[in-house]
Amino acid sequence: MKLSIITLLATQLSAIQAAPAAIQDDSRALVRPRSPHARFSRLATVTSTIVPIETGAGSGEGGEEGAEDEVEQAGEFDVPIVLPGGSKVDTLYPPGQNGVFEIEFQNAEDRTLTVTQNPSPAAPPAGFRAVEPVSFIVELAEGTEGLTLQKVDYILNPNSTLDISTGAIGRFCAEAGAFVIDPAVGELEFEAEENELLIKVDNMNGEWGIFVPDTAAAPGAGAGDEAASGGDAKPNTKEQLINLLLSLLE
Description:
Layout: H1 2-18, E1 70-74, E2 81-83, E3 88-92, E4 99-106, E5 111-118, E6 128-130, E7 135-140, E8 149-156, E9 168-173, E10 178-180, E11 187-191, E12 196-200, E13 206-213, H2 214-217, H3 221-228, H4 237-249
Parallel strand pairs: 1-3
Antiparallel strand pairs: 2-5, 3-4, 4-8, 5-7, 6-13, 7-13, 8-12, 9-10, 9-13, 11-12
Helix pairs in contact: 1-4
């Protein structure tokens, strides 16, 4: 009887050792090819949560939206800036603590954009932490109805080691008094080669925050906590089976 139990446990232990590690799947994260008009040259880090997708030609027909007729300009916080109609316009703001805030826009007619910073934003959503100590308030003076393209972007600084691949861009909801991270806010993407987090929306006007999961701030923190707690940490399944096998052999 003891031999059959040992055989069964040994079989289970072998199955556990042979099983592949689970791969976390973040369905919100998409990887797009680098734009031919890339603003930054940086090393891309693609994690297991990002699933590359195949696309057509990187430029010309089938390439990125507006890539053939794209305008890039530098904005200043609190200062209105004209977004010229006709072209795709990328407006980049001065770098923050970890990255650059950017607005992508396209429309037949001009619009006037003002971005201000809120130095005392609401708390991050549960399970997240803010990447910047400020949030960003976007105001398109003539409104956002009927625009061809509206995107809110955050590009990681070249010298930053922060992982934003599993991050999110949240919109402040005045009624709830909190930032909301939800697919209903917009289509979230991550461009690995530019280390850029972006969200495509129907209305860019509002207050935006950039967030990453708490675990991204301190990798391995869970393991460290278990080690610090000594005997309080629970053994994993493999350890339990090994201990049981040894006890049966005694």
